Amino acid sequence: MQRLLACCLLATTLSRIDVLAQTLNLSQAIDVKKLAKIVVPPKFETRVVGGRVTTNEKLGGYLIALRYDKEFICGGTLLHELIVLTAAHCFSGREKIKEWVAVGATSKLSDKGIQRKVKEVIKSAQFSEDDMNMDVAVVRLKSPMKGKKIGKLSLCSTYLKPGLELVVSGWGMTDPNGLRPQNLLRTITVPILDKRTCRSSYWPAVNITDSMFCAGLLGKKDACTFDSGGPLVYKKQICGIVSFGIGCASRRYSGVYTDVMYVKPFIEKSIKVLLAKS
What we know:
The chain is of the alpha+beta class. It contains 5 helices and 14 strands. It is globular and about 45 Å long. The relative contact order is 0.21.
């Protein structure tokens, strides 16, 4: 679900347009396009909103591009030369392991980078697209991801209090009308938000569970489509995984991330299982 919840908001808005159109007492035909401009909020910003262009090397070389059938799907984080951490929703409807490739040491999606085939993926059994709870997956590569521009992150060990600023990076779209990721890598610093406030803003459309937290500067800074699976980083630790949101840089809805501290037992157990296999 790469910001697919935006569709729910759009559907609701269109329904409001329908109702408004029916209640207007006009002697002439209604111009639906003009009406939409009045009722529909500004188009969803589809990018690492407020971000700046950077390189993977400057970040630390830990960011991985995950491709399926040669198409870029999600970001990921290198934890070990054979292990990549990402979001479970990236694999929904993409079950053929042989089609997955992890690409490291790349800043532009057009670059070849260092490519490694995926051997196995473990998703949390508690993950469901219906609620996005436990949106985490651990990927085992067929061969080690090595190179002078390759780096790794450790799992989070920091308590994420509101206001703490972390870095999120990815190839999210920049064209609000586009359908594809951006070729250039972007990065942005976003603050952690109070969970009760975030939970209240999303309710009842979405239940913000214990495996999630929210971050972003409402209306200004956020991750978005095609940033999914990428890391939210604090001092060389991955503390969040880009999961979902309604819109991007919305004035009401912040970005939602999988809480790495919460899902750490699953991650560590999965890594142990995957590395034990030859």
